[in-house]
Amino acid sequence: MTTPQPVVAVLGTGIIGAPVARNLAKAGFTVRAWNRTRAKADALAADGVHAADTPADAVDGADVVLTVLNDGPRVLEAVRAAAPKLAAGTVWVQVSTVGEEIYEIAAYAAEAGLVLVDAPVLGTRQPAELGKLTVLAAGPQSARATVQPLFDTIGSRTVWIGEDPATGAASRLKLVLNTWVVALTNGVGEALSLAKGLGVDPQHFVDAVTGGPLDSGYFQGKSAAVLAEDFTPSFTVDNAEKDARLAAEAARRAGLRLDGTEAARDRFARAAEQGHGGEDMVAGYFASFDAKPQD
Fold it and tell me: Could you give all domains of the chain from N- to C-terminal order, each with its CATH number?
């Protein structure tokens, strides 16, 4: 006998949530989606995703709830709004980057009788669209048979960190990984801005790096975006600023200083003030151009 696919509710259909919902529907899951801006959920109808008016409507009868929202407070707000229709024992997969806000999320899950799997993902728009995210998961063995088919659909691999999401192990690992992403992005932006400021052909910089030990797919993608002046977001400046802030705050609580991450956060915030908040995170590049030349 074939086991029916679980009914999945996806709360949040932004840059990551939309392709996650789309890929799950294409894989045969029944998917209901809710988004604060209803039009974003409606846009998935052609892919077999059912748009819901409210979080409660989306989760009604769902076996698994995925939250793919901007931050911890928004995750909690959506799940609390869904609470009247959430049955005890429902599996809640927390996909967002929430940092140490995971502790409050885990406490609420326990209070509401939900089975929490903390599963932040590594990847941006294109990996999400291709179903090649890396899932960093912490959750009980009892839930793994339910959630692994979903993870296999939205990701190329799953790294299980532990069984207790309340330890925050998966979300803390995501902060470490995001610190590396922020450093890479900031490095590309600053090097290219310096090239422009010094009158160096930026293509010469890219050519010198290409094929050597400093090269990477990430470098090629982000430098190409700057050179083409194409800042279509795969992950926004605003989200990068939030992630840098979460990492820096966690570091301070641990008695550490992340000077580069703090500086990157300021650069992202400055770029957002210049009007680049909704653009790709490499648009932090523009933060270099608000200084006046010195004698």
Answer: 7-167 (3.40.50.720), 172-290 (1.10.1040.10)
